[in-house]
Write a structure and sequence with these properties.
Layout (H helix, E strand, L loop, with lengths): L3 E4 L8 H11 L3 E4 L17 H10 L6 E3 L12 H21 L3 E4 L9 H15 L7 E5 L12 H10 L6 E6 H6 L8 H11 L5 E5 L2 E2 L10 E2 L8 H8 L9 E3 L4 E2 L7 E2 L2 H10 L6 H9 L2
Parallel strand pairs: 1-2, 1-10, 2-3, 3-4, 4-5, 5-6, 6-7, 7-10
Antiparallel strand pairs: 8-9, 11-12
Helix pairs in contact: 1-2, 3-4, 4-5
Length: about 300
């Protein structure tokens, strides 16, 4: 069975319960969330997240697993500012604990940016940070995300991710989050030769290490190294190529998460509308709907 979901919010009084309700409303059977705002370290106490109610609702609707995404402010690769690295390690440890308490086994993490110090130095720093938080008894796996390669990002090649694996003591607790937009932007030909890309990935890291897919189209041509998501099927990767990955027999058991941009209201720049219900329905039907953005706008103005 296809495990298809999207990135949902978690806020207000319902918190995680509201996240599950959103996933159900969108027609998802898995989902991804942050444990708090991605741009800061402020976090509500676990007692306020309504975790048990969320789990009950998940059980009622057959949602067996979900994924947590670490906030972007965690940059383990920073070799320049020691305080930035130390904060990143402390906060990553907190996020691992929160992920476990919420009931997920997968925490997606951007490897980080070396801020001009070079890939090798950045990889050493990333491994140092991960080694500070992972133990042989850790219940949560850190899923390193494949990156687009903008700026000084680490992880835009499979070899860079393998370098991190090689330096982490308990690397059996590492996994990979395969982002389709990022890998295409990094120059991998997932459009015409996904099987070849996976064959290469399997040799470098091992395809069994993929714990989650971010199923994102891209506004950019392959190799652009820019990282700008597009709605599913409306970008440079395209519907057919994404659907081939979505339904690939080797990865049917792996959660597929949409991180699509919201549809902007052309008449009101302050308004935008979530696309996930329509995208999930389109994917499950297996038929591209070129009128999807217009349909979302029409529904939103009723």
């Amino acid at each position: 069975m296809l495990k298809l979901g999207c990135h949902v919010g978690m806020s207000g009084k319902e918190m995680m319960l509201g996240s599950v309700k959103d996933a159900i409303r969108f027609g998802a059977n898995t989902f991804m969330l942050y444990t708090g705002a991605p741009q800061n370290t402020k976090r509500k106490d676990l007692s306020e997240l309504r975790i048990e109610e969320a789990k009950v609702l998940m059980d009622e609707h057959g949602i067996e697993e979900f994924v947590v995404h670490a906030p972007y402010i965690i940059n383990l690769a920073n070799c320049v500012k020691s305080e930035t690295f130390e904060i990143a390690v402390e906060f990553l440890e907190l996020e691992i604990a929160r992920t476990q308490a919420m009931g997920s086994e997968t925490l997606v993490l951007h490897p980080g940016s070396h801020v001009g110090e070079g890939v090798e130095a950045g990889v050493e720093q990333i491994a140092r940070g991960i080694n500070a938080v992972l133990t042989k008894d850790s219940k949560v796996n850190i899923a390193l995300e494949t990156m687009a390669g903008k700026g000084s990002e680490i992880g835009c090649t499979f070899e860079e991710l393998a370098m991190i694996y090689d330096k982490v003591i308990y690397n059996d607790k590492l996994r990979i989050c395969f982002d389709t937009c990022h890998t295409s932007d990094a120059g991998y030909d997932i459009i015409h030769d996904f099987d070849g890309v996976i064959e290469h990935f399997d040799k470098v890291i091992g395809k069994e290490q993929i714990a989650v897919f971010h199923m994102n189209d891209s506004k950019n041509s392959p190799g652009a190294r820019k990282d700008r998501h597009e709605n599913f099927g409306f970008g440079q990767i395209g519907f057919d190529a994404l659907m081939y990955i979505m339904n690939h027999p080797d990865f049917m058991h792996i959660p597929k998460i949409l991180e699509s941009p919201y549809i902007k209201d052309p008449d009101n720049t302050k308004k935008s509308y979530e696309p996930f219900k329509h995208e999930i329905a389109m994917i499950r039907a297996g038929v591209f709907d070129p009128n999807m953005p217009e349909e979302i706008l029409r529904e939103s103005t009723k």
